[in-house]
């Protein structure tokens, strides 16, 4: 079982396993020492990277997801005896694997958050029939673009960590598929899934746990940032605003994943009102407990909600798929009410932060930057002279043995940029003056 989980599909057969460190600890070291991990500090979470010292970036978000996931993984190991039987490689929860998956889950996000992803996908689809998606780009980075000593491509991660990151186990090129894995990397992932005898469409317990802890972080930490920024105002006028409630209901109804939450079982507007009312009521109680100190109240609210969600995570039977499921659980069954509550809080952060008109103005600026960078690089005869030489060398060396088209190469280059670096290159190309020829890219 260990050999299957610790197998490294990209690593040379002659490589020796470490006798000093566990293989998953080696994965952890490879991830946090990678340039991609460091660049997360310059990529937007909700507010643009550099908006202020307080607000989260992709880096701090990933670290917070990893902390929540590791603690829950330790508890689940203690409280679920069947895990110790190790009956199936996908029905195991190793805290280090879950932590690695959490660290790497946002590696594929481009600059400027979801707007950057949206623009790259639109351009690639419209002009080249290709897709761009953050989760798929994760695997492109981990299995192809990243470099490490002794390897031709990627970080050569273990099978357990790769499948722990794979929360959408599908080929993204399939018709109508919005999330998944690009073809080149899917061949390897599918081979691992076949070796593990994974049921079609099912993720490992470790991937499911990482995914839910990501949702917990979104529904708690982003709201904390929103309160701090004044975008979420903790008063009845704000929480009872009909426009806010209407937008939340519309976000729920327009979500392509709405079927997972059983919204047809409830009056959506009524539940939205109840969750908002209860959230504000809890804030007022904690505000009094914290001697009316807002910063302490924000932190305490966040901590209590993280605890309330994380403490309810457990493993139940997924009878529809003949598999196991990590879920928010009450009395041995999935707690759909709490799941819907978490989704409403996620939508609250989205509606009040991402849909804020000032944020939308910044996103429009981000859209223009990404589009103009693309236009500058996409014609190979000209673009190759304004892309760093090490990228061009890598493309020329590796495109011979792989299907690395120039449009995919340009998408790989732009998506690896931080927000600040994308703005710097844009300014060098289109503003009057920025930087120096002696700066190192």
TrEMBL record:
Q: Which residues form the HD domain?
A: 58-219
Look up keyword Nucleus and say if it applies: no
* PANTHER family in the record: DEOXYGUANOSINETRIPHOSPHATE TRIPHOSPHOHYDROLASE, DEOXYNUCLEOSIDE TRIPHOSPHATE TRIPHOSPHOHYDROLASE
Listed Gene3D superfamilies: Hypothetical protein af1432
* Membrane spanning residue stretches: none
Cross-referenced CDD domains: HDc (cd00077)
Instruction: Spell out the PROSITE patterns in the cross-references.
Output: HD
Instruction: Give any GO molecular function from the UniProt entry.
Output: dGTPase activity
List the protein's name. Answer: dGTP triphosphohydrolase
User: A Pfam family this protein belongs to?
Assistant: HD_assoc
Q: Which InterPro entries match?
A: dGTPase, dGTPase-like, HD/PDEase_dom, HD_domain, PHydrolase_assoc_dom
Q: Which UniProt keywords apply?
A: Hydrolase
What's a GO biological-process term for it? dGTP catabolic process
């Amino acid at each position: 079982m260990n050999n299957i989980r610790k197998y490294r599909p990209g690593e040379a057969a002659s490589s020796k396993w470490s006798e000093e460190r566990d293989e998953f600890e080696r994965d952890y070291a490879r991830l946090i020492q990678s340039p991609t991990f460091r660049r997360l500090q310059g990529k937007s979470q909700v507010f643009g990277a550099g908006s202020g010292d307080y607000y989260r970036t992709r880096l701090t978000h990933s670290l917070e997801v990893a902390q929540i996931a590791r603690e829950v993984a330790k508890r689940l190991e203690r409280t679920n005896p069947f895990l110790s039987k190790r009956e199936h490689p996908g029905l195991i929860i190793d805290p280090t694997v879950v932590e690695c998956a959490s660290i790497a889950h946002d590696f594929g996000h481009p600059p400027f958050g979801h707007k950057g992803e949206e623009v790259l996908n639109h351009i690639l689809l419209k002009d080249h029939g290709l897709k761009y998606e953050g989760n798929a780009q994760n695997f492109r980075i981990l299995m192809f673009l990243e470099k490490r000593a002794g390897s031709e491509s990627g970080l050569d991660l273990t099978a357990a960590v790769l499948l722990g990151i794979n929360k959408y186990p599908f080929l993204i090129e399939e018709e109508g598929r919005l999330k998944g894995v690009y073809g080149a990397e899917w061949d390897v992932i599918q081979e691992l899934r076949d070796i593990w005898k994974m049921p079609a469409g099912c993720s490992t317990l470790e991937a499911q746990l990482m995914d839910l802890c990501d949702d917990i972080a979104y529904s708690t930490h982003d709201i904390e940032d929103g309160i701090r920024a004044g975008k979420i105002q903790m008063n009845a006028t704000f929480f009872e605003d009909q426009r806010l409630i209407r937008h939340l209901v519309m976000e729920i109804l327009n979500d392509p994943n709405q079927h997972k939450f059983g919204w047809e079982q409830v009056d959506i507007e009524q539940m939205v009102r109840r969750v908002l009312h209860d959230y504000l009521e809890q804030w007022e109680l904690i505000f009094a407990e914290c001697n009316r100190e807002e910063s302490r109240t924000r932190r305490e609210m966040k901590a209590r909600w993280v605890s309330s969600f994380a403490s309810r995570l457990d493993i139940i039977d997924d009878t529809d798929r003949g598999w196991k499921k990590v879920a928010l659980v009450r009395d041995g069954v999935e707690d759909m009410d709490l799941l819907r509550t978490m989704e409403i809080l996620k939508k609250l952060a989205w509606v009040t932060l991402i849909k804020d008109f000032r944020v939308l103005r910044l996103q429009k600026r981000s859209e223009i930057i990404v589009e103009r960078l693309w236009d500058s690089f996409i014609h190979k005869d000209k673009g190759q002279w304004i892309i760093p030489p090490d990228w061009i060398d890598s493309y020329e060396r590796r495109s011979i043995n792989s299907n690395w088209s120039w449009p995919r190469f340009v998408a790989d280059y732009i998506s690896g940029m931080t927000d600040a670096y994308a703005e710097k290159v844009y300014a060098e190309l289109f503003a009057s003056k920025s930087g120096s020829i002696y700066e190192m890219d």
